[in-house]
Amino acid sequence: MEGVGDDGASAAAALNIKPAKSFQYYLDKTTPHVLYRWIGTTVIMALLYALRIYSVHGFYFVTYFLGFYIVYLLVGFLSPLVDPQMEPSDGPLLPTKASDEFKPLISRLPEFKFWYAITKALCIAFIITFFSLFDVPTYWPFLLFIWILHFVSTMDSLIRRMIRYKYILFNLGKQGSNTKDISGADFWSRFKPFYFSFPDHELIIELKGL
Question: How does it sit in the membrane (predicted)?
């Protein structure tokens, strides 16, 4: 009798584990397809949620918290893993001079986790819209105004920090099996110099001529 019970428990555990492994398998396969993942999330999930909110004319409070959560994720994505202001080190630091090169941004929240968190948040928010309990009456223009203020103030500080330490989000170079590596500097070297002026300082991107 004990053997029969053990076999049943192991079979039930196997059935529970198999869907999780299948989900993780297909999730891992989408890791290198960055562009298609973001297009799918934007077109399918975001558009579906927007149409749902527009059709029911409600759940603005849920949308407000969803927007704040996305801003929170965006802060993690645009923040460096090691902040040179908060954690100074004895080793080489990021460049702060105009003549220094740009450095890739090693995000505190990796791109895949950033995408997965946004997708999961959109799915949860979409499911919540089917429960009238969460449709809290509110004045949505006021919530939108507060969210815009929060977004602008947050992005302003992040962009200023990225300009100061010369972060770049994406690597423009690519690798080939029979060709040498093409770095971002080689790509941009085909263009002429551009100069961007900011209130605090002048950011100069030195790009060689053709």
Answer: Multi-pass membrane protein
Instruction: List the chain domain ranges.
Output: 30-80+107-167
The 3-class secondary structure across the chain, one letter per residue, is: CHHHHHHHHHHHHHHHHHHHHHHHHHHHHCCCCHHHHHHHHHHHHHHHHHHHHHHHCCCHHHHHHHHHHHHHHHHHHHCECCCCCCCCCCCCCCCCCCCCCCEECCECCCHHHHHHHHHHHHHHHHHHCCCHHHCCCCCHHHHHHHHHHHHHHHHHHHHHHHHHCCEECCCCCECCCCCCCECHHHHHCCCCCEEEECCCCEEEECCCCC
The confidence band for 210, taking pLDDT boundaries of 50, 70 and 90, is very low
> What is the pTM assigned to this prediction?
0.65
Say what percent of the chain tops pLDDT 70.
62
